[in-house]
Amino acid sequence: xxxxxxxxxxERTDGxxxxxxxxxxxxxxxxxxxxxxxPDAAPGQYVIVHVGFAIQRLDEEAARRTLALFxxxxx
Amino acid sequence: MTDLACPVPFSDYERVVLAHGGGGRVMHxxxxxxxxxxxxxxxxRAQHDGAVLDTPGxxxxxxxxxxVRPLFFPGGDIGSLAVHGTVNDLVCCGARPEHMTxxxxxxxxxxxxxLRRVVESMARAAREAGVxxxxxxxxxxxxxxxxxxxxxxxxxxRVLAPEPPSPSRVRPGDAVLVTGPVGDHGVAVMIEREAxxxxxxxxSDSAGCAPQLLALLDAGVDVRCLRDPTRGGLASVLNEIAxxxxxxxxxxxxxxxVRSEVADACExxxxxxxxxxxxxxxxxxxxxxxAERALGALRRTPGSEDxxxxxxxxxxxxxxxxxxxxxxxxxxxxxxxxEQLPRIC
Amino acid sequence: xxxxxxxxxxxxxxxxxxxxxxxATRPWTVMEICGGQTNTIARYGxxxxxxxxxxxxxxxxxxxxxxxxxIIEAARVLAQEPGVVLCSFGDMxxxxxxxxxxxxxxxxxxxxxxxxxxxxxVQMAANDRGRHHVLFGVGFETTAPATAMAAxxxxxxxxxxxxxxxxHVRVPPAIELLLSEPEHEIDGFLAAGHVCTVEGLADYPALxxxxxxxxxxxxxxxxxxxxxxxxxxxxxxxxxxxVENQYxxxxxxxxxxxxxxxxxxxxxxxxVPWRGLGVVPRGGLRIRPAWARFDALRRFDPSLPEVTExxxxxxxxxxxxxxxxxDCPEFGRACTPEHPLGAPMVSTEGAxxxxxxxxxHAAFDERADR
Lengths: 75, 345, 370
What we know:
By secondary structure, chain B is α+β, with helices and mostly antiparallel strands. Chain B has helices spanning 25-38, 42-45, 78-91, 112-129, 184-193, 210-218, 233-245, 260-269, 288-299; strands at 59-66, 72-73, 76-77, 95-107, 132-141, 149-159, 175-178, 198-199, 225-227, 248-252, 283-286, 308-314, 321-324, 330-332.
């Protein structure tokens, strides 16, 4: 699997070897995360993070559509 | 609370040397200028081989070893931890902690300044808990044979509970309470120890729990069983009690208080907070009729404002703890095979 | 959007469970391939919310659980080489190999460190050039990009005291292997959302078409899983077998091309053994020759003890739904969580380990009743 959790990009930072990093907030805790695989991600956006890497930007529109599907499913 | 500052350097050495345990002048200076000064009381001042105590009534006694890395962590250090751990074991016997002894195993090369901070913190914690450190010992081991400081402590307390709490007194129908949010200590230490570069405001909950016991007893609560959920956390304590009481325990996960800092760090590390150690919390089993009164008394006690009722003792599934998930279904809350390690899966 | 709480909501879970019950007219059997989903299912008790007769088969667990014995032995041997620091994810430390686990190796003097990210291991190597750091890189397709980036960073920093013991596995070939057995009882699959976050959906249409099973790419929160099951059951009821994406907030159809590109530079697809399943064709990754300087096995060429995967393990049958774990002759005898033969006993939530635990509790209840 892969334990991956959503986090909010606070600010971009420079990592070792020229890799792009960012401080990412997970609720009340913050950790440095490598952005090499989501090079365009910007502060204020949410990313999904696995073993210290952002592996995708989260799509808020898609999430809202999923939540709407839950409503539909119940009716 | 007064800070004990050392007026003069208590040694010409900056680091612990083997002579600090050698029985000669260097050792005596260490004892007098650090330990006796910090823990100051008539028993220690006498510098006898032991202390003669005048304590009437039933006594509770406990002993515990303390090793923690790092020695200092947010919310405490090995010195305060040694006091709190010892005190809380006495509290779980229904006793008011009164005296303790401490044996220090020091590693050659430990900075004496570090030792001074540990001892002064320990003295402060003891004063706050109303406990006197009446006897002690120091030994020094060669560099590489220890982890800075190990402390072994023995505690003595006077039993105040009319009937001492014990798993054998737990009955079906009893309410299960916790005196505050769980998991703070283990997560705070883990983040610090593994240098995880996680920014968090989290601090250990390390604290003595005698005020909570006294609050329960003053409120006339029949405290059937008390336990401090240290290693293995809440889940392990509940399992131990379920087994020794031969009763089932049903816990509602949604009712277990967990700070969001702990919950968030646990999400990041793949931990379950129910298995993470606390050092300033109690799990209390009380009769259903006393439960509300007990909760009220706890919530008026500083540090236990978030005390909560988390479950009930059942006749069903003796020896087993069932955890009701926030979605409704229940599952067995089992023992872990060891300390939790950060997961990727 | 809070991204998590909405997907753990009890009311939503109840609504979806209700929809599932109304949709299912037959006792469908669905496998969730990913141990993370198995974990959510166990933790929230989702099986109790399913319609009568519906069955979940828990997949082989997680990549940690399927790591073959020979690789765990290699890790133990490398960790005990003088001057070597073995950096591992925490969950790998307690996985028993043939002669013990990594915690045991640590007790014998090996320097084994827990890292949260592969890049932490590279940093450790950069800060301590006097010792060689081996990253034990395990994981599904989700984790492989992180391992690949560790090698890339080591290359950029020109480190010669860093290497990989890599054992990455690929999910679609394992699905293919399970479905290739004609007597399997799996009607539909939940595919692993985080694997597909990296890999996208390209591997799955062919599997759906060839084996006639629906595959729903699903997230990891309890509501996600109920929703994934509902989508799967609706396909089954309608006689459809397509790839659907429940986890749209994270999974794009082309996945993460940047991540895949680096994985493809560092690794090549290979036939590799999965613990208890045997060799899975194209089931894993191995380091390309061009990156040999970062391959710990090539650098150290450790003399490894002969380990043979136990032939008695029937994990394949358990995973195909054809064998209940307690009916396996080795269950509770040669195979226990302390000495597991295959992945389903290694993983805490693996099918065999779960049966073992519950059976123990049942036995305890009986004793207490007497």
